[in-house]
Design goal:
453 residues; four-stranded mixed sheet; 18 helices
Length: 453
């Protein structure tokens, strides 16, 4: 009897101790936690994610003693640089954030061993709710280090107001925008009609080339090297070069949305999240303004046989802490943000796609639930692509980020040079068609040379 009583007392004491330890490992109002976050959603406008974070802090965060503190809202490249500076303890570097949104490439910068494995905290059932392709991107080996919270596709954006005016004079219709052949012909016609204005800005020439090569059944990247010597690349390059050399494509640095404001361009290809930055009016050189309507169309195709589009977007990373309360706080926030209601509220105000199948189905079951017409147009374009396009994630390889940046810079430099030569030579009386043919070929040779081919 005494042994039984002693055993029960020991068991009770052990349970009490374990219960106490468990309690100490969770944040609470009596033992609160503040987590700093850097993210990319809305760096030049009202941030939809900040709005959701405020809601979290007022509700579940207050209940659990968790505060999410937004320290920085900036671009993904700026976050990459800041993380590198923090990880290397560079002078003046910011302290490493507890949470940040970024692309998979940052895992090497920060050190995978320093990141929180989300799959240690999410059950198999919880993880099964995520869209499988989106979740797969976040795995490094057998650890889920990047949690999807929002993804974007690409689309073709158009200042519909000015385009309709152009169409009325030229007879061109929006049907021309379905393929890049049609887009580039439209760009050349628009250049003539507008007395020398560019029609289009391509925000990612690397994406353009990747999808174009896919359409011809060839990979842009093989063994970590760009395959610019492939015949398929020439098929992708020549029509782009012709339109750019003619003047129909903007080759300057900066965001397309900024050029929409002054009608320097009236179209662009880019992330569906670009809708967050689209202006509702344009300002002319004489300071008069005009309200405009914007529309989104599916990403243009390269061939009749293959339609493809890039889907992209990083995910949420958390720095692993020795204080388990901080890890638990990060998980509580991550689970809240990816719940259907909250995820939909976030992504549909930013032009992104939700990350769980349930939220995905809810969004596309009724696009009329989206209040803003230009946002509804974006999701209608995505819906069309979901039916008939192949969605691709960009390949990850050593040096991928640098390769993409170098390619973008080289394309712009080569085409700018060719454009300047074209203007000068036809100004000197040379035959435009002959000059164009020579410069297209020369630009391809130069680009291949710059890329080490």
């Amino acid at each position: 009897m005494k042994k039984t009583l002693a055993f029960l007392l020991t068991l009770t004491l052990l349970m009490t101790v374990l219960s106490g330890c468990s309690h100490q490992q969770m944040p609470s109002p009596a033992d609160p936690v503040t987590l700093n976050i850097w993210h990319v959603y809305g760096s030049q406008t009202i941030s939809p994610l900040n709005t959701l974070i405020d809601e979290f802090n007022r509700s579940v965060g207050r209940e659990h003693g968790i505060t999410i503190n937004v320290v920085s809202v900036t671009s993904s490249s700026a976050i990459d640089e800041a993380l590198s500076a923090s990880a290397n303890n560079e002078p003046g570097a910011e302290a490493m954030p507890d949470l940040f949104t970024a692309y998979p490439r940052v895992a090497e910068i920060v050190g995978k061993e320093n990141l929180l494995p989300w799959d240690d905290y999410f059950s198999e059932n919880e993880l099964s709710a995520f869209h499988a392709e989106f979740l797969t991107e976040g795995y490094f080996g057998n650890q889920l280090l990047m949690l999807p919270v929002a993804k974007s596709a690409e689309a073709f954006f158009l200042n519909q107001t000015l385009f309709d005016r152009f169409c009325a004079d030229t007879g061109i219709t929006s049907d021309a925008l379905a393929s890049f052949d049609g887009v580039f012909q439209t760009a050349r016609t628009y250049y003539d009609w507008s007395d020398g204005q560019s029609f289009l800005q391509i925000n990612d020439f690397y994406h353009y080339a990747y999808l174009g090569m896919k359409a011809y059944g060839v990979e842009l990247v093989r063994g970590g090297t760009l395959q610019l010597d492939e015949e398929a690349f020439q098929s992708v390059w020549n029509p782009l070069a012709e339109a750019a050399i003619y003047g129909g494509i903007c080759l300057d640095e900066g965001y397309a949305a900024a050029r929409w404001k002054t009608a320097e361009v009236i179209a662009n290809t880019g992330s569906t999240a670009d809708v967050l930055y689209q202006p509702s009016e344009i300002i002319y050189p004489d300071n008069t303004t005009e309200a405009i309507e914007a529309a989104a169309y599916p990403y243009p195709t390269f061939t009749d046989e293959e339609s493809g589009v890039i889907y992209r977007g990083g995910g949420l990373f958390a720095m692993k802490s020795n204080d388990e309360r901080r890890n638990q706080a990060a998980v509580i926030f991550a689970k809240w943000l990816t719940e259907k209601e909250h995820n939909l509220a976030f992504v549909t105000n930013a032009g992104y796609l939700p990350v769980t199948d349930q939220a995905f189905d809810a969004l596309f079951s009724d696009l009329n639930q989206i209040e803003k017409e230009n946002y509804r147009s974006v999701y209608a374009a995505v819906e069309t692509m979901l039916d008939s396009y192949t969605f691709y994630a960009l390949p990850l390889y050593d040096g991928a980020s640098e390769a993409q940046l170098d390619f973008e810079a080289n394309v712009k430099a080569v085409l700018k040079s060719a454009r300047n030569q074209y203007v000068k030579r036809i100004g000197n009386g040379e035959d435009p068609e002959t000059v164009m043919e020579v410069l297209i070929a020369a630009s391809l040779t130069e680009l291949r040379s710059l890329s080490g081919k």
